[in-house]
Write a structure and sequence with these properties.
Rossmann fold, 6-stranded mixed β-sheet, alpha/beta
Length: about 525
Amino acid sequence: MTELALEMLNITKEFPGVIALDDVSFSCRAGEIHALVGENGAGKSTLMKILAGVYQPDKGEMRLRGTPVCFDTPGAAQKAGVGIIYQEFNLLPWLNVAENILLGNLPRTRLGFVNWSRAYETAHKALERLGVCMDLRQRVIDLSVAQQQLLEIAKVLSIHTHLSVIIMDEPSAVLAGHELEQLFDVIRTLKRQGVTIVYISHRLNEVFKIAERVTVLRDGRVVGTDDVANLNKSTLIGMMVGRTLDETFPVAEENIGERLLEVRNLSSSKLGLRDINFSLHKGEILGIAGLVGAKRSELVMALFGVVTVDSGQVWLDGRHIPLGNPRKAIRMGMALIPENRKEQGLILSQSVCHNISLVILERLRNFLLINEKREYEAVRKQVDDMAIKTPSLEQEVGYLSGGNQQKVVLGKWLSSAPKLTILDEPTRGIDVGSKIEIYQIIRNLAKKGTGVIMISSELQEIIGMSDRIIVMSRGRISGELHRPEATEEKILSLAVGGGLESVIAPEQQTAPGGQKE
């Protein structure tokens, strides 16, 4: 496999005040799975958008199968055989699978009506090419996230059946377990058909599992390209961040204190939660694991009061929390860093200062006015503590990198000095350097006695950060594991709803008042 399917030579791209790509050369072999990695801002997306025709380079040239090409539109790139699948889905939820696959390209009869028999046949062939079986008449809103991701791939392939290069930008960001393996099976199927895959991911374990070669970008330049077999995780991280990293996860300390949170018999038919019982101690990091659809996010939303529940009781630091009231939850010491920072955690058009001070505005008021000096001091402290990289406190959050946006969300909630901090996928979509910084922030919170609940789809992250792990399956807690016994195999076995008996800690059998049930 020596023929080059793609060559990008000496590519340079500048934006106002920023050199995004500086003399970058990148090539892929025919039928190769080639990983492209680097921290946020390294230039990965810019390079791929040039390949996909979204941007045009200031300097440099491109070749497909040895032929010079220049794409001024994404359509031109697709006609030449280059397709891109973005991290964000571009599907219409109320249409069915076949309609989404052929959106804008539904076959017509001579009279101009939709030829539905041909449409379903074409859609079936697109899925068949991926080795995927799916109900063509099912609405997209009823599909799992994993199915929607596969549908995105099928849609691209159905429009241009001759694609020879497919760019996948964080295709696994919302996948775990067997869903991730299904995606890998599809990628391997495409490889066997001679398609070249450029695979962008922050999950380095996936790079070692699926890719044959990897190219590392840092600050708009190529650090190196090598066979994955010649590298290990530590070496690859060092290439990405420019420094040696001996430990990815900070060392846990034995400083777990008295019980902080108690959840009893929490159920919600609307959310699919059934008889949830668990506890959390001060200074403890409790990981919540499970596959997509296990109702992990629904659980923490219920705890925070975003949605109402049918039954259940919650105590925080000995005080009963009335469910269904986020304002009271905040006042009693709870904080929630949501899964989707851009839609649920930030006001992208507002400044760093205004975003961080949102939660503590009541403390900053002098009568009806905000004390701007106190606001600045409080925000400056969080920016320094979080090591947020921003030109100024007035910078719009939308222009920061993903890692720094996540730190702004953390800074906003930590400014309220919460007793309990809930983090839903805190490192999703951010680079490895920012991940390690956020891991340290989380561990420092626990050292100060804050209780931490952390949801993550990355099993190594859950194992590396958690003092204790509860595993959810179909809206129930299917088991509990302590740090020494936790393995990926045990977590996955519990996540699919069987294979291991739940190990419930003895103290969970004690009610908040100290009486055995």
